[in-house]
Design a protein that fits this description.
This protein is an alpha+beta fold and 434 residues long. The strands form six sheets. It has a seven-stranded antiparallel sheet with strand order 6-12-9-10-11-8-7. The protein has a six-stranded antiparallel sheet with strand order 2-1-22-23-24-19, with no helix packed on it. Strands 4, 13, 14, 15 and 17 form a five-stranded mixed sheet that branches. A hairpin with a 2-residue loop joins strand 13 and strand 14. Helix 5 packs across helix 6. It is flat. The two termini are 18 Å apart.
Length: 434
């Protein structure tokens, strides 16, 4: 329902505003407020990804990883994970699916959290349509700006019905041709141009990414053996080593050259989870590349096994999570269907905490939900429209307001004490399977 178009009705069922996506929120982006959130004590950040594609997850994760690493270095903090992440593209949140961004009331509720025009991806803003021709528009340096199959969205302010998306068919000189030739779409003058699919960026982001743990290598002689050791360059200091007998190798005639060759062979950790941060060579036998490479491979395997063992030991020491019994005599939340408890395991978790769930989630009970609150949110449509009951500036229409679509009728209840809104389902069109 959040992404559906609705007509806005007043208490007398008069349509007071044209059809638009009144419940469609922009996507959350608090990237610029990471420092403030860390100051507030936040130590873990959740990035949405369940309903997103792989390129979105890769781009946004890389973006936050870079920003967090900068904050960690600036503050001399420690990370909860190990290794360095490497990507072959420049992360940019504008390139991924978005309906415009919002910090969503991180400081205080204010207008600007919704996108009434469309629930589809807008992407990055490119410019404004100033000149058109049948089936396209004029854009300076179009050939260098657009690629064939780029996805565009043309947004017409205050007129969602005229906003639409189209694909770039071709870009020649300063001309951009969109859509199929037989359709010959007419581009509205003054429309904002957004690119919601950047083919050049998609090509870059498809390249492999990696995470590497820096290690310090050391090659030396000890007790008739040549030893190659590694130690992770982090606070764990995980160590591993392999060896081979000295008797099988002669001393090198050119020690400096031999040391360089050994350094090159040992530091090529390739597709392993490690990368060489530093290497010390104090023994210089004449060792064939095959023997050196074999020692490197065995060392990488031993270090990986040692890392897994250390992780399991840490996990065992930390213990398993068990719910803590609450000190509250009354649950701080509704224990009926609003708890959204769908299965027996969820019910058991609440019981372990000390709360008894009285009713399963609506999906389980097949409750019609008519007359019930289907949404409780800090988002307020009156505030978004500049009609806040407390602060104005416009006078609100006769309440209660309703949202009407082809599928349902919703009533909006405004709670000024908590500065929020409840959405109540009044009626809905039966689905085909009901």
């Amino acid at each position: 329902p959040c992404r559906m178009p609705y007509a806005l009705l007043d208490a007398d069922n008069r349509e007071i505003m044209p059809q638009a996506h009144y419940l469609c929120l922009r996507d959350m982006n608090r990237l610029k407020r990471l420092s403030d959130m860390i100051d507030a004590g936040v130590s873990s950040f959740k990035i949405e990804g369940r309903l997103k594609d792989a390129s979105y997850v890769k781009n946004i994760t890389a973006l936050y990883r870079k920003a967090l690493d900068e904050e960690i270095a600036k503050r001399n903090l420690s990370r909860s994970s190990y290794g360095e992440s490497y990507v072959q593209f420049k992360p940019d949140e504008r390139k991924s699916f978005n309906r415009g961004y919002t910090e969503f009331y991180l400081d205080a509720p204010k207008a600007g959290a919704a996108n009434f025009i469309s629930p589809k991806s807008r992407g990055e803003e490119i410019g404004t349509v100033k000149q058109t021709f049948p089936g396209g528009f004029i854009f300076e340096n179009a050939e260098k700006t657009f690629s064939n199959s780029d996805g565009l969205f043309f947004e017409v302010e205050n007129n969602p019905l005229k906003s639409f998306g189209a694909q770039v068919r071709n870009a020649q000189a300063n001309k951009v041709f969109v859509g199929r030739p037989q359709d010959c779409p007419k581009i509205p003058l003054g429309a904002k141009i957004f690119r919601n699919r950047d083919c050049a960026f998609e090509k870059e982001i498809s390249l492999p990414c990696s995470r590497k743990v820096p290690v310090k290598l050391r090659f030396y002689e000890d007790g008739g053996k040549y030893v190659l050791s590694a130690k992770t360059a982090d606070e764990r200091g995980i160590c591993a080593q392999v060896s081979t007998v000295c008797a099988g190798f002669e001393p090198a005639r050119d020690a400096q050259r031999a040391a360089q060759k050994l350094s090159n062979s040992f530091s090529k950790l390739g597709s392993t989870a490690f990368e060489c941060a530093d290497i010390e060579i104090s023994a210089t036998p004449h060792m064939p590349a095959s023997s050196a490479n074999d020692m490197r491979r065995r060392l990488a395997e031993a270090l990986e096994a040692a890392s897994i063992k250390a992780h399991l030991q840490h996990k065992e020491k930390r213990g398993h999570f068990s719910p803590r019994k609450s000190d509250l005599s009354v649950p701080p939340f509704d224990t009926d269907w609003r708890a959204n408890c769908m299965n027996a395991k969820a019910e058991q978790l609440y019981r372990d905490i000390g709360f008894q769930i009285t009713q399963r989630a609506p999906e389980f009970s097949k409750d019609s939900m008519l007359g019930k609150k289907v949404m409780r949110t800090k988002y307020c449509l009156l505030r978004e429209l500049g009609m806040c009951i407390k602060n104005g500036p416009k006078k609100p229409p006769k309440l209660p307001l309703k949202l009407k679509s082809e599928q349902s009728l919703l009533r909006l209840d405004f709670d000024c004490t908590r500065c929020g809104m409840d959405v109540v389902l009044l009626s809905r069109k039966a689905a085909r399977h009901e």
